[in-house]
Every structure is written in C-alpha cells, then in structure tokens.
Amino acid sequence: MNKTLRQILSIGILTLFLTQIGFSQSIEKFVDSTIEVDSLNVPTDLKQPYFPKEMFPEVEMDWIKTDKGTKIETKVKEGNYDEFVVNWYSKHLHAMKEPLLFNRKVNKEIYRFTWLRTFDKPMTFRFEKKNDRFILYWKVLNGAGGYEPGEIEIERLKILTEKEWFEFTQLIGKANFWEMDLGRSSIGTDGSEWIMEGVNQTEYRVVSVWSPNKGNFYNACDYLISLTNLKLTDKKKY
C-alpha cells in the first residue's frame, strides 16, 4: 500500500474511533460466557437472542392523519424491551447459522448487515477485518423476511482488499453509525428491516432502519451488497 493511501486510512480509522467515544456500548457490558455456543460461536439454543434486549427498547406507534394522508409517529417506551422484534430478527440469524457478535471479546473488527424484506429472501452480509485480512461472508435464505426464514440457499465468502474495507468504513462514518439511535429507530408496515451491527475489541452496537431508500446508511449497506455476486434490481432493494 502506498504512503498516501496509508495516511488516508490512518486518518479514517482515527475519525471512526473518535466518533465511537461516548456513543457506542462497551462490549464488557454484554460479555456472557454462560451462553451455549458451538466452535463458531453459533448459539446451540434456538431461543437464544442474537442481540442484548436492552438495545431494542419497545417503540409505540401512533397513526396521525394529515392533509397529505396518514403518517406514523413513534415514541420509545422507557424501561420496556421489544422482545418481539429481537426474537424475529434472531429467528432469521439462527436459520443462517450466524455467530453471535456481542457475547465475547474479539480480536478483529466486524460489521454485519442483516436484510429482512417482508416478501423476499432474507440475507446477511458480514465484513470482517483481522490484521491485514479482509473477508466478506454472505448468506441467503429461501424464505421471506416477514414470514418464515426457510433454509440456507446461498453461502459464500470473498477475500477483499484494504481499499474496499477503507471505502466501507468511510461510508459507515458518513452514516454516523456509532452515533445512531440504538435498536429500531423507525417503523413501518410492509417493507424491510435493515439491521447493522458493529463490534471491535472494545465496543458493540446495533441499529435497525426501516426501508431506507437513500442516504448514507443505505449507501453503506448497499456497498456490501455490491461486493457480492448477487444480482439485485433497484426495485428489490427496498
């Protein structure tokens, strides 16, 4: 890697680190050695949640009529956790045989985008950096994100470059991922759930956005899709 790119990368990493201070959640808070997992850190109990429940506060929905139609307003219910949402998301990750990301300390950096479209196949994209090695894993189920997950239909991995990792983390930085509201920040009816997790040696965070169709968060997730060999039309990227 040339000197200029290394300098840019160092600045990007520093910027990302600074955005985490005060906004992310310490992994120490969630480490739990009592959770039963296999050698790949996949939970052996199908009822084991994939996320700390306190990171998904329950959200109330109000349907407000306006001159332009009806809109949804949301309000977080303090002290209540949305077990329905956590169990829904977890059911699909269990079917994908994905590892937990919050229950133990790691010696690498990981981002995982889980994509649950109501009427289309559930997918997950996990980008890992360990030392100078960059790997993207992706899986596709044959079910539907709003219904039953089904079984694994596609499971692939791809060795990527430091440049591609840098480009992705730049998008994550622009999306202010480490400063976003925890858990499910927006709600709608039929559409899709875009769930992003991030973990490193000290921090863990998860956020969920309902049906983004543009913006920095969308761009970060879409970049992971573009690094695979999946052929998806814009219409299917809802």
Describe this protein's structure:
It contains 4 helices and 10 strands. The protein is α+β, with helices and mostly antiparallel strands and 238 residues long. The radius of gyration is 18 Å and the shape is globular. Mean pLDDT is 87; it is low at 3-23.
Which structural traits does this protein have?
238 residues, alpha+beta, eight-stranded mixed sheet, two-stranded antiparallel ribbon
- The helical percent reads 10-25%
Tell me what portion of residues adopts beta-strand conformation.
25-35%
Mean pLDDT: 87
The chain-level structural class is alpha+beta
Helix-strand string: HEEEHEEEEHEEEH
Largest sheet: 8 strands, mixed
Radius of gyration: 18 Å
Which overall shape is indicated by the principal axes computed on the Cα atoms? globular
Number of helices: 4
- DSSP E strands, number: 10
Give the uncertain stretches in residue-range form: 3-23
Terminus-to-terminus distance: 36 Å
